[in-house]
Design brief:
The chain has 501 residues and is α+β, with helices and mostly antiparallel strands. It folds into two domains: 139 residues, Nucleic acid-binding proteins (OB fold (Dihydrolipoamide Acetyltransferase, E2P)); 256 residues, BirA Bifunctional Protein, domain 2 (2-Layer Sandwich), CATH 3.30.930. Helices cover 33% and strands 26% of the residues. The protein contains 15 helices and 20 strands.
Length: 501
């Protein structure tokens, strides 16, 4: 292992600490009774409550001034200034704890525990007067030191690729990143509460599946050695959740890790989080109202408002949202009515609109490409797109009023799909025919065509009640709620290409 000069110096300091009889990685607990933010915000209200402080964190700055020093300690809430006096932490004759350990051998990034009392400096800054200090973990690698001068940041840990690869460093030196993930957690908790308050059951379904289904996507494959059988990482959890509706549950939902072996972009990661909900005896129109209510509630719980800033846009989640049928939306934004077009006419229209297509695309895929290129980028406010062509939706129920359409909606927000919902197809004969048409598309070269799942069809043969189902892209919703331009910013550890050795 090639060590830098600073890493060598830190390892030498580590050995000197050991030689002093100090364990740089002690095993015992260090009790914490408050945090940096609580001390700073509440000290003025109750000074007496902060005269016996015990906190721990990472040393982020040292300012040595002879027999006393100021430093900054960063815990999981923020940063607080600490005051370290030699005579306070070394009351006896031996002053090594201050002169050697604190002044010479402790480095920026080391984790320490301190006990003491809060006070206010002459400049008015709330600080902690340290009465005892303990090294809890020696840092052997220097962390980036972010400097600010006149409002300008220097030497920041800002390279996106490096930040994603070393998220642990990113979280140490960029406090706003913590805020993003804390807000994401709050968002997920609000979604979960909304559904459990509706008396729906949170469940878990298999990640390893013998047949992948529930979406149009390419899967990751693996092999089970004992069974000598190919398995797939799930691309969706839809078909398993609908099996549970067949089994008698009135409503089930799951926050699921899904995997799709596809391209990567600012909006796509091969591993992502989907929340899917299925409710018996409901239809897609009920689900539209339920979704509006849920997302309005989630926005308020996550950000404190139903209006969220995303880049240069203000997105308003307050009900009601705009609603278009797919054909209406395409006509609105292209001035072309495609509702009566066959496959060849759609192919010609796509070419006239300079949309890239290929021979494997059927009627549904062609319509999807036209919508994706010419309409979706223009939809910023949350917008329902309804009444999809049957070719695009092999798991949705046929429209009760319009031939050739299904009861389906997507919500487009900030120019991207946020969720997808159906009145779920519960006719096993119709479902088998739809699967067989997907197989034909696969033979034409469509790598994302669905496969036939005999066990799911067997479940439908026992009877599934009328059901409304929805899948919400949790990562994309988090991007909006936290005002982040990339999905990698709301994933702790996004997939990255291996560094060349």
């Amino acid at each position: 292992m090639q060590l830098s000069e600073q890493e060598i110096v830190r390892r030498e300091a580590l050995q000197k600490i050991i030689d002093m009889g100090i364990n740089p990685y002690p095993a015992d607990s260090f009790e914490i009774n408050t945090n940096s933010t609580e001390i700073e915000e509440n000290f003025e209200l109750s000074e007496d409550a902060y005269q016996n402080i015990s906190i721990a964190g990472r040393l982020m700055m040292k300012r040595i001034m002879g027999k006393a020093s100021f430093a900054e300690l960063q815990d999981d809430h923020g940063v607080i200034q600490i005051y370290v006096s030699r005579d306070d932490i070394c009351p006896g004759e031996d002053k090594a704890l201050y002169n050697d350990l604190f002044k010479k051998l402790l480095d920026i990034g080391d984790i320490i525990g301190i006990k003491g009392r809060a006070f206010k400096t002459k400049t008015g800054r709330v600080s902690v007067h340290v009465e005892s200090l303990k090294l809890l973990s020696k840092s052997l690698k220097p962390i980036p030191i972010v400097k600010e001068k006149d409002g300008v940041t220097y030497d920041g840990f800002s390279n996106p690729e490096l930040r994603y690869r070393q998220r642990y460093v990113d979280l140490i030196v960029n406090p706003e990143v913590r805020s993003t993930f804390e807000k994401r957690s709050k968002m997920v908790s609000a979604m979960r509460k909304f559904m459990t308050d509706s008396d729906y059951l949170e469940v878990e379904t298999p990640v390893l599946q013998p047949i992948y289904g529930g979406a149009s996507a390419r899967p990751f494959t693996t092999h089970h050695n004992t069974l000598d059988q190919k398995y797939y990482l799930r691309i969706a959890n839809e078909l398993y959740l609908k099996r549970l509706i067949v089994g008698g549950y009135k409503g089930v939902f799951e926050f699921a890790k899904d995997f799709r072996n596809e391209g990567m972009s600012r909006y796509h990661n091969p591993e992502f989080t989907m929340m899917e909900l299925y409710v018996a005896y409901k239809d897609v129109y009920w689900m539209m109202d339920y979704l509006e209510e849920m997302i309005e509630y989630v926005a308020e719980a996550t950000t404190g408002s139903t209006t969220v800033t995303v880049g240069e846009n203000e997105i308003n989640f307050q009900r009601p949202w705009k609603r278009y049928t797919m054909y209406e939306a395409i006509k609105e934004y292209t001035n072309i009515d495609i509702s009566e077009m066959d496959e060849e006419q759609l192919r010609k229209t796509a070419k006239e609109l300079h949309i890239e297509i290929d021979d494997s695309m059927g009627r549904g895929k062609l319509i999807d490409e036209i919508f994706g290129e010419k309409v979706e980028p223009l939809l910023i406010q949350p917008t329902f797109i309804t009444d999809y062509p049957i070719e695009m939706s092999p798991l949705a129920k046929k429209h009760r009023e319009h031939e050739g359409l299904v009861e389906r909606f997507e919500v487009i927000c900030n120019a991207k799909e946020l969720c997808n919902a159906f009145s779920e197809l519960n006719d096993p004969i119709d479902q088998r025919e739809r699967f067989e048409k997907q197989i034909e598309l696969g033979k034409r070269g469509d790598e994302e065509a669905m496969v036939l799942d005999e066990d799911f069809l067997n479940a439908l043969n026992y009877g599934m009640p009328p059901t409304a189902g929805i899948g919400i892209g949790v990562d994309r919703l988090a991007m909006i709620m936290t005002n982040q331009p990339s999905i990698q910013e709301v994933l702790f550890f996004p997939q990255m290409k291996n560094l060349e050795s």
